[in-house]
Model the fold of this input.
Amino acid sequence: MWLKYFSEWKPFFEQESKKPYFIKLVSTIQKEYQTKTCYPAQENILALFNTITPSKIKVVIIGQDPYHNKGQANGLSFSVNDGVKLPPSLVNIFKELQKDLNIDHFQSGNLIGWVKQGVFLYNTICTVVKKSPLSHKDIGWLEFSTNLLIYLNEIRDDIIYVLWGNYAQSFAPYIKNKDNIIKGAHPSPFSYHLFKDQHFFQQINELLIKNKKKSIDWKM
Done:
């Protein structure tokens, strides 16, 4: 069963699991994975919730849905496993990381090191059918993700939210502390000209320090 997560997430998942949308979502996911090729692998659908607890989150970076080509999606937004060719958006993220903080991350697209330091790399649509972007947009993930953001904002007021692109910014109304929002264009090739030179990683670390938290070592 893919519904595995750290026990600290239990209050959230218990409240959601009683709701009709979530019961339907679980059923739909099971059927989709039985009849179609979907990503990420079932055991990685909630990989993020198995890697970091709510109390350890410092930064939430919101993505849309997983990479939809074979071997790419690993359950963390924007991330791919070692040895996988870097998708264009991730290449652009690494370009800015290098310009911003002189960090070269191009040898590994695996961002698990960021997650372990408190960066919640979250796709608001957690699954996708092969080569069909947004194919799982309407099966319940958006309600789940909205409720997740509401939950995080109920229990924490010190999380930084990074909203790249109009889609991610549509979730801004659910974030209570507007001073902890960092906005910008999406790193896709279509909007890279607006994404570049915004010093996002420097902004995040400066805000963490301002909030008396340890900055992220983006080399990890």
Q: What stands out?
A: The first helix runs from residue 10 to 17. Helices lie at 10-17, 20-35, 88-101, 112-115, 137-155, 165-169, 192-195, 200-210. The longest strand covers residues 59-63. Strands lie at 38-39, 59-63, 119-123, 128-129, 160-164, 181-184.
